[in-house]
């Protein structure tokens, strides 16, 4: 039982340590897209989320990075 708890604690620790990195990555992606393609871009980065959004035609990017980390970028005016 102790080994399982140790793995869970390690996963929680990694999640807490990567949060500022993911948050700054989302901010950086949004700012870059706003400068290059105009304003109204939105970015979500995370694991295990679903979405239903309204976006402009040909202005949606949804990809997985590193196997489990999803990145969703879309433009909405």
- Helicity level, as a percent range? 40-55%
Rounded mean pLDDT score: 85
Radius of gyration of CA atoms, rounded to a whole number? 16 Å
Biggest sheet character: 3 strands, antiparallel
Describe the structure.
The chain has 77 residues and is α+β, with helices and mostly antiparallel strands. The protein has one helix at 2-37; strands spanning 41-46, 60-65, 69-75. It has a three-stranded antiparallel sheet with strand order 1-3-2, covered by helices on one side. The relative contact order is 0.16.
Helix-strand blueprint:
Layout: H1 2-37, E1 41-46, E2 60-65, E3 69-75
Antiparallel strand pairs: 1-3, 2-3
GO cellular component, one term: axoneme
Family: Belongs to the dynein light chain family.
Main location: cytoplasm
Top keywords for this entry?
alpha+beta, 77 residues, 47% helix, microtubule, elongated, 3-stranded antiparallel beta sheet, motor protein
């Amino acid at each position: 039982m102790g080994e399982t708890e140790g793995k869970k604690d390690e996963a929680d620790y990694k999640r807490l340590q990567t949060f500022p990195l993911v948050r700054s990555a989302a901010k950086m992606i949004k700012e870059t897209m706003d400068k290059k393609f105009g304003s109204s871009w939105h970015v979500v980065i995370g694991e295990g989320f679903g979405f239903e959004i309204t976006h402009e035609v040909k202005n949606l990017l949804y990809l997985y990075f590193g196997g489990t980390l999803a990145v969703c970028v879309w433009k909405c005016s």
